[in-house]
Amino acid sequence: MKILVCISNVPDTTTKIKLNGDQKSVDMTGVQWVINPWDELALTRAMELKEQSGGKIDKITVITVGEKTVEPTLRKALAVGADNAVRIDTVPTDDYYVAAQIAEYLKKEPYELIITGIESSDYNGSAVGGMLAEFLDAPSISSVSNISFEGDAFVMKKAIDGGNETVTADTPMVAVVQKGIAIDPRIPAMRGIMMARKKPLLVEAPVEIEALTEFVNFEMPKPKPPVKMVDAENVAELFRLLHEEAKVL
Amino acid sequence: MINFEFTEEQIMIQQAARDYAQRELIKDVIERDEKAEFPTEHIKNLAELGFLGMLVGEEWDGGGMDTVSYVLAMEEISKVDSSCGVVMSVNNSLVCYGLEKYGTDAQREKYLKPLARGEKIGAFLLSEPEAGSDATKQRTIAEDKGDYYLLNGTKNWITNANSASTYLVIAHTHPEKGHRGINAFIVEKDTPGITLGPHENKMGMRSSDTHSVMFTDVKVPKENRIAEDGFGFKFAMKTLEGGRIGIASQALGIASGAFERALQYSQERKAFGTEIFNHQSVAFKLSDMAVKIENARNLCLKAAWLKDQGKPYGTASAMAKQYAADIAMEVTTEAVQIHGGYGFVKEYHVERLMREAKLTQIYEGTSEVQKIIISRSLLK
Amino acid sequence: MSVLVYTENWDGKFKKSSFELVSYAHAMSGQAGGEAIALTIGEVANEELEKLAQYGATKVLSIVGDAYKEMDAALYAQAVAAAAQANGCEIVLMANNNEGKGIAPRVAVKLKAGLVSGATALAQSFDPFVVRKNVFNGKAIGYQQIKSANKVVTLAQNSFEIMENPVAFVAEIFDADAAESKTNVSAVDKVTDKLLLTDAEIVVSGGRGMKSGDNWGPLEELANVLGAATACSRPVSDEGWRSHEEHVGQTGKIIAPDVYFALGISGAIQHIAGVSSSKVIVAVNTDPEAPVFEAADYGIIGDLKTVLPRMVEEAKAFKANS
User: Fold this and answer.
1) Burial (CB count <10 Å: 0-12, 13-18, 19+), residue A244
2) Cys-Cys crosslink for A65: which of A39, A88, B186, B368, Cβ 3.0 to 4.6 Å?
């Protein structure tokens, strides 16, 4: 059985965001690029599943849509333990475009389980997993907080309001995972780091398709007004403010 | 040509060390320091990640990494926990290096491989109660008994004394030959006749285990002697040259860890109407600290680079060790100062870093000994 | 352009978020020159469906049937897309919650529609169609254009005020042919039926400043008086003082209540990330330098031992008078 983990290349979450002069794009100079945090957790879980499967899961592939500059991020995934990597050589213009590219690759190389993160920390889109499943006419399970491998099937724990459901599905299936899918992202061992370059990194040509959305401009959020302090002796004043000024009580 | 860029692998190695330190070591570092508790779980994890045998060649089950990667990893670990840093340094630069460079195939097969894999830990036994900086005055005797050596004496201040299984012991076989009569031996810790003194109650790096080790009629097999008869002193000196790079990187980490905390604190703490970073006296302190750390890092990396290139690096590593240790003391002291009252309490880490910095000026060759080495090299 | 607004129901009942969605759909359809048509899947009583008309849904569609008993994203998306096309709706709207995140992307591909996840305001313009949303985890604001004729938008939580715009109530059963489901739900584990943290309008949360798990009595009392849910910071759940279900923050739950009371919480970035979309944050802490005061709208510097009981008293008095 094979697992495909879709990863995206994003700025490190501690980056201070600055806009370019025309406000039409974000200034990416000096940005540290990392694997999208949810995708990193997805990859960690995929590795755990493979290690515990007694050989039944024998291949973890990572795939991304991006230009050559994203290859270090792919190699980080290989260092963590993925067996091979695929890069679709094009700029990831929007989620629809990205999902379509990955769907095209899956026509050539089938996988039983495809895992995507529920959100990407750059443009906060929550789309690729579901879109990919629809392109493949495959089942998708979203808000997945755990995947286990029982017998020969993948069993998913899906978060619902006030609890969770246990779900299985036909393969190929897409699991869209959220926090909790792994506790911490796996740290690559030294051996993994030194082996990363030796693992296959396949570059695929993209297919012609139109992106359906585009960011036309950006702005910085307005600074928050300073906190209004209330005297500890006069707590009644707090409730008055919450009622009359903030109008939330 | 000077190239200040790191390779992708070096950056990944640095990041892995940073992640482990900032995520895991940080959790109990203060508690372990207070209780003087050995970081057993962490050493196991660091071993699994491959940090204990980084420099050993792949043919001996090591990581086959370069010394630059080692410096980067040592710095990151030591920013948070220099006790783990010293375990790592002794294992990598002293014991593994010594065995890999000078051991026979049989010795390397038997002893180096488990050390490189991190399954076993090593210790380096040179210092004695009466012989520290003056290492030629070894009183520990290894009497040549034909097919074995008989070891008698006491070693002091041994890092990893309790946790290690493999000791590299320096002892005198032919006292009449002076330092040319000194040998180096691989001694298994559970050999009968070895006893440990109590765990030293130290000022800093309290989570690493330090004991004196007593040898009473300890039998060491002939084949456990390293290299030819009388090579021991040279072995110790050559091995310490590489060890210096590890300790220099450890000192660098202690300094940069303290600096990062002081920088963060200065941007949060307010006094006299603004964040204290905006007061020149504090900003200038931080500026000085940054320059010192940058210098220390460059010295460490240069020494590492020379070693990787197969060029002589003894002077470079002495410079790195002396400078990094001395600025670590200065930087950590200032870091405590910048924190004000908060710098004096354990919760804020910097007081621990200041206590740790002191040892880097003393062990593996005091700053004064480094200056002897450096000044002698000026005459060459 | 007409808007199809998918309103999830919970055991046949709608929530405040459903009415926010319909209010938004009504406003958007007004801007676009069309209708707001609501769609819900599952058995919902007429009196409940009528509520949607209060907020401007000119038609309320229901899809019923055994095929839809389990939320199979593929089937639900198929139904939503079919309803949108059958009713001439170019825009499909849903919440950016668990269910919405599962369905919206599939609907988008079905309709060949561009998708905006987590809109925070009405469309800035219709030609071109541009919607505002948060990017980089809220560090910046982006304006995303949908270039296709069909459009899918999911609305971020607590981004739009409920507005009553009553219209005549028209209900209709929508016949959606369901394909075979490829997923199977084998167990449902309901952890709690009490007020969901993610639904609560008021949340009272405690941090390490509470000093001990034994001190939660007054906090729970305050929550009771205000009709609020309780929450906590990560160190509190790590120590075992409170359940992990209450942990809000970057690695816990992300919530967006109207009021978030942060009691004895220092305000570490990871915690604030979980509550930054709250309308109002009230912080109580002994340390005037605590970072929580940077994020808070109102603050009290004081010892919880004295301040918290006062808050309980004042909350009771406030409730009695309102």
Assistant:
1) exposed
2) A88
| List of chain B residues whose C-beta atoms are within 8 Å of the C-beta of residue C289 | 268-270
Q: How far apart are CA B228 and CA B219, in angstroms?
A: 19
CATH code of the domain occupying A2-218: 3.40.50.620
Tokens of A66: 């991006």
d(CA A119, CA A8): 10
Chain B residue set in contact with C, beta carbons under 8 Å = 268-270
Q: Cis link prior to C128 (omega < 30° from 0)?
A: yes
| pLDDT, tens digit, 9 for 90 and up, residues B105-163 | 999 999 999 999 999 999 999 999 988 888 888 899 999 999 999 999 999 999 999 99
Q: Give the position of tokens 């004991």.
A: B211
**What DSSP designation does A21 have?**
T
Q: Report the C-alpha gap between A109 and A59 in whole angstroms.
A: 12
Phi/psi of residue C99, nearest 5 degrees? -70, -45
Residue B298 has pLDDT above 80, yes or no: yes
Domain edges within chain A:
2-218
Count CB neighbours of C96 within 10 A. 23
A neighbours by CB contacts (3+ pairs under 8 Å): B, C
**What is the pLDDT of chain B when averaged over all its residues?**
96
Mutation target to probe the B interface, by most B beta carbons within 10 A, among A44, A69, A187, A197 is A187
Structure ipTM: 0.94
3-class secondary-structure state, position B107: helix
> With an 8 Å Cβ cutoff, are C145 and A96 in contact?
no
**Domains along chain B?**
8-116 (1.10.540.10), 122-233 (2.40.110.10), 241-378 (1.20.140.10)
Give me B290's structure tokens.
């940054």
Model confidence at A146: pLDDT above 70 = yes
Query: Quick check: C112 and A212 CB within 8 A?
Result: yes
Give the list of residues 6+ apart from residue C187 with CB closer than 8 angstroms, or none.
Answer: A165, A166
> B107: closest CA among B157, B57, B43, B60?
B60
Nearest chain C Cα to A163, which residue?
C190
Phi, psi angle pair for B200, to nearest 5°: -65, 140
The number of C-alpha atoms within 13 Å of B337 and in the hemisphere containing its C-beta is 12
Question: Distance between alpha carbon C305 and the CA centroid of its chain, in Å?
Answer: 33
* Alpha-carbon distance values, C116 to B304, B343, C40, C133, C160 (Å): 51, 48, 21, 8, 16
The alpha-carbon gap from C143 to the nearest alpha carbon of chain A, in Å, equals 5
Strand partners, B351: none
Contacts of A198 in chain B (CB under 8 A): none
Q: Please count the residue pairs, one from chain A and one from chain B, whose beta carbons lie less than 8 angstroms apart.
A: 40
**B81 touches B24 (CB < 8 A):** no
Bond prior to A172 in cis (omega within 30° of 0) = yes
Q: How far apart are CA C237 and CA C242, in angstroms?
A: 5
Q: What stretches of C159-198 adopt beta strand conformation (E)?
A: 171-173, 183-190
